[in-house]
Amino acid sequence: MNKIMMKGTEAIGEAAIRAGCRLYFGYPITPQSELTEYMARRLPQVEGTFLQAESEVAAVNMIYGASSVGKRVMTSTSSPGFSLMQEGVSYIACAQLPSVFVNVVRGGPGLGDIQPSQGDYFQATKGGGHGDYKLLVLSPSTVQEAADLTGVAFELADKYRNPVLIFADGLLGQMMEPVSFSDKKVSYDNSSWALIGAKNRPARQVTSFNIDPYGLEKMNLELQKKYKLMEENEIRYETTLTEDADILIVAHGTMGRIAKSVVEMARKDGLKVGLFRPITLYPFPYEALRKSAADVSLVLTVEMSSGQMLEDVRLAIAERTRVEFYGRMAGVVPMPLEIYEVLKQKIGRRS
Amino acid sequence: MDYKVAYKMPRSLSGKQFTYCPGCHHGIVHRLIAETIDELDLREKTIIVAPVGCSVFAYEFFDIDGTVAPHGRAPAVATGMKRARPDLTIFTYQGDGDLAAIGTAEMIHAANRGELITTIFINNAIYGMTGGQMAPTTLLGMKTTTSPYGRKAEKEGYPVHVCEIIKELQGVAFLARTKVTTPRDVMTTKKYIKKAFQAQLKGLGYSLVEVLSTCPTNWGLSPEKAIKWLEENMTKEFPLGVYVDKVGDAK
Ligand SMILES: Cc1ncc(C[n+]2csc(CCOP(=O)(O)OP(=O)(O)O)c2C)c(N)n1
Ligand code: SF4
């Protein structure tokens, strides 16, 4: 397979096209406008449709519309834009419309800055919009993985009729790396539920609405059943040198990649450090993490946030092992040496 | 003896009983839309995007595929549908709160893009579903639950004139304001609705028909008095007529 040098954002765009996505609706925002621009360039070349929406509010509703007529569709944005999309995301989740979202997370809260961050973890995994719903959330750590997971995102979106979120950050988005794309033949068929005209069948409705609480509860139970299936079947994670580890770093996305360098440094010094990198943030790999942490004396969670994934790590580990945290906020990226120093301090303090 | 059917329910209505109050005009407009869909033979490829408002159940009253958009976002949802499936006929059905307050941006930009969708806009100068609050189209001096002393220009601004605002947008192919208070009005409205759908079918651009409608319940008037009130007050504020017509008349 040929490899091409590409930015993370563009790789996601190209992977989406290879996955059969022919529709993109979005609104420019740094640090992901390259993806919007890539789609504006590429989609017309494959007889697709790119449309710059008047806002993220409009964009998410265009996604709702395009998905409801059965087509693969995506949008991308960055934190403030994804906040604006939340009402629509909630409707999409309830109406069970397959769709792919990319949030290239930047420093917040508020207008924040345009530097890489993971501060939208709660928004991504715990709701964000109103009501009892879940997104499937994928956190890539390399350009190649971003491309691969984009393909996965479209498959999962159709399989579960659920919105899928690719949780990235500006570092991954801007990074140039060699990447290859799958040439798998794409076929999908949403005609069993999509709104394509009441021809030779009764009229059909796709809505997020039921005025009868018992009816709406039934819809909710259906969603919950689906989420359970996701938890059983879709958990993804990567472990690095965890078998003999005495210290386990937990980090996802770009932070996971940086943490790998910390593991290398520590190993050179004879410290038995391993890495657990969740790839699906929802469903979170609680069980796998618990197992990986079974024999370690310290779990260090590292994030570009104040400690959001930390809550899931604690849920997984419970009181069994000491859990520590290191993070930087607002778009400041913790560097390997910095993390390594923290790690040494934490073990020093203990002994 | 042979009987000829002189009048029947349009095929494109589902037959489900309307949930509207006595004297409400939503139902009349539904029927006119359904007749139009029948006459243009579009039932099997038309999708309704219902709003949030009293007509939130509109998708159940039509025997066609449909959905409900978030409050105000119907034109964006319809845009997504039409761009994904240009072969389908898409229309939004929206109230004045939905279209001219929370959804102003979506409506204006869909119109400006010349989006090939049709909007039927029910202007009853009030928020019906939520119990009679002030709408952007509420008349000056009119009392609502959130303008209990009457709408004042200094405080709440002026009634929003949707047709006048969007008539200059080049993407608009058919635009008219009408009412359904008399049989003649009903015929005119039907003609407008048909033209609006034709604008879409012919690929001419965005089309919108504004229908001045009654809300006897929240106006606190009997159906009869509501009609009179509409005639005497709303038609003065909101001039009727065709604002844009790129469809033309069939020879
Ligand atoms: C985001 C959001 N805000 C507010 C509401 C509450 N709400 C429901 S309908 C409505 C107003 C409807 O009025 P209008 O569009 O004029 O339609 P009508 O009921 O008069 O037909 C409001 C404010 C909502 N559903 N969603
Ligand atoms: S509240 Fe008003 S708009 Fe709503 S159904 Fe009743 S009369 Fe019609």
Structure, briefly:
The complex is a heterodimer of chains A (351) and B (251). By secondary structure, chain A is of the alpha/beta class. Chain A is built from twelve helices and 15 strands.
Spans of chain A with pLDDT under 50 lasting ≥5 residues? none
Q: Averaging pLDDT over every residue of chain A, what do you get?
A: 96
Q: How big a fraction of the residues of chain A is strand?
A: 15-25%
CATH topology name of chain B = Rossmann fold
Strand content of chain B: 15-25%
List the helices and strands and how they pair.
The complex is a heterodimer of chains A (351) and B (251).
Chain A: E1 4-7, H1 8-18, E2 23-26, H2 33-45, E3 49-52, H3 56-68, E4 74-77, H4 79-95, E5 99-105, H5 121-125, E6 136-138, H6 143-160, E7 163-169, H7 170-174, E8 176-179, E9 205-206, H8 213-233, E10 237-240, E11 247-250, H9 253-268, E12 273-278, E13 280-282, H10 286-292, E14 298-303, H11 309-317, E15 322-327, H12 336-350
Parallel strand pairs in A: 2-3, 4-5, 5-7, 6-7, 11-12, 11-14, 14-15
Antiparallel strand pairs in A: 1-8, 6-13, 10-12
Chain B: H1 26-39, E1 46-50, H2 58-61, E2 65-68, H3 74-84, E3 89-95, H4 96-102, H5 104-112, E4 118-123, E5 126-127, E6 133-134, H6 153-156, H7 162-166, E7 172-179, H8 183-201, E8 206-212, H9 216-219, H10 223-237, E9 241-245
Parallel strand pairs in B: 1-2, 1-3, 3-4, 4-8, 7-8
Antiparallel strand pairs in B: 5-6, 7-9
Helix pairs in contact in B: 1-8, 4-5
Structure, described:
By secondary structure, chain A is of the alpha/beta class. Chain A is 43% helix and 19% strand. A 5-stranded mixed sheet of chain A has the order 4-5-7-6-13, with helices on both faces. In chain A, helix 4 links the parallel strand 4 and strand 5. In chain A, helix 1 runs parallel beside helix 6, helix 3 packs parallel to helix 4 and helix 10 crosses helix 11. In chain A, 54% of the residues are buried. Chain B is α/β, with parallel strands linked by helices. Chain B has a single domain, classed as Rossmann fold (3-Layer(aba) Sandwich), CATH 3.40.50.970. Chain B has 10 helices and 9 strands. In chain B, the strands form 2 sheets. A 7-stranded mixed sheet of chain B has the order 2-1-3-4-8-7-9, sandwiched between helices. In chain B, strands 5-6 form a two-stranded antiparallel ribbon. In chain B, helix 4 packs across helix 5. In chain B, 54% of the residues are buried. At the A-B interface, helix 3, helix 4 and strand 9 of A face strand 1, strand 2, helix 3 and helix 5 of B. The structure holds thiamine diphosphate and iron/sulfur cluster (SF4). The site of thiamine diphosphate has 17 residues of chain B, from helix 4 and strand 5.
